[in-house]
Amino acid sequence: MDKSNIYVVYMTAGDKDEARSIGKVLVESKLVACVNILENMTSLYSWEGRLQEDREVVLIAKTTAEQFVELKKKVASLHSYDCPCILGFHVAEGHPPFLDWIRESVATEALC
Fold first, then answer.
1. What are the sequence ranges of the domains in the chain?
2. Which fold has domain 3-106?
3. How confident is the model at residue 2 (pLDDT cuts 50, 70, 90)?
4. Which pTM does this prediction carry?
5. Burial code of 56-87, b = ≥16 C-beta within 10 A, e = fewer?
């Protein structure tokens, strides 16, 4: 099976509650197979001409290229940030049973 349709998605949130809420919606709506939530990240960035330093929470999700478009829309609609970080990375290779599990977890009935 073609591995090229698997994506890892990197996102950030303002706190653990927001990250957990977004993650649950993504899993329950079958837009992702799973979400990892990593707390206590420090972000340094320029926003509106000023250097910012904030604590954020990282979400790492596994999905397919087909679901990524809807994932971006859903996260943007749920997120508290004006400009949320949502980055998709193509997975070139992986453990075949795990890649299959991702595909099966996000497959809609129309795709089955």
1. 3-106
2. Alpha-Beta Plaits (3.30.70)
3. low
4. 0.90
5. bbbbbbbbbeebbeebbebbeeebeeeebbbe
